[in-house]
Amino acid sequence: MRKIIVSAAAAALLASGSVAFAAVKHTTGTIKTFDTASKSLVLDNGSSFTLPETFKDPGLKVGEKVRISWDMSGKNKVAEAVKIVK
């Protein structure tokens, strides 16, 4: 009985730990390309992001420094928020 409880506790601990890996990530960089029609943004370091349909452009321009909050969706980096950094 004790082994079952320990095993169940270990499994619960491992399952809750994997949720932490799903946290939103942040990247800062300079915009290389930005296309509202295709909902894409590429930074000068080569990182590319897909923008959600609900994205509201805060006035982004090529050459502007931004901070992107993003998460993975399959093989794509999806920007959840894009903020201009001064």
Q: What is this structure, in a nutshell?
A:
This protein has 86 residues and is of the alpha+beta class. The protein has one helix and five strands, in the order H-E-E-E-E-E.
Structure report:
The protein has 86 residues and is an alpha+beta fold. Helices cover 22% and strands 42% of the residues. It has a five-stranded antiparallel beta sheet, with no helix packed on it. Strand 4 (65-73) and strand 5 form a beta hairpin. The longest helix is centred in the first third of the chain and has 19 residues, at 2-20. It is globular.
Mean pLDDT: 83
Largest sheet geometry: 5 strands, antiparallel
Give, in spatial order, the strands making up the sheet with the most strands.
3-2-1-4-5
Proportion of residues in extended strands: 35-45%
Shape: globular
Helix and strand string, N-terminal first? HEEEEE
Provide a count of the helices: 1
Percent helix, as a range, is: 10-25%
What is the rounded distance between the termini? 59 Å
Uncertain runs with pLDDT below 50, 5 residues or more?
none
Structural class: alpha+beta
Rg on CA atoms, Å: 19 Å
Number of strands: 5
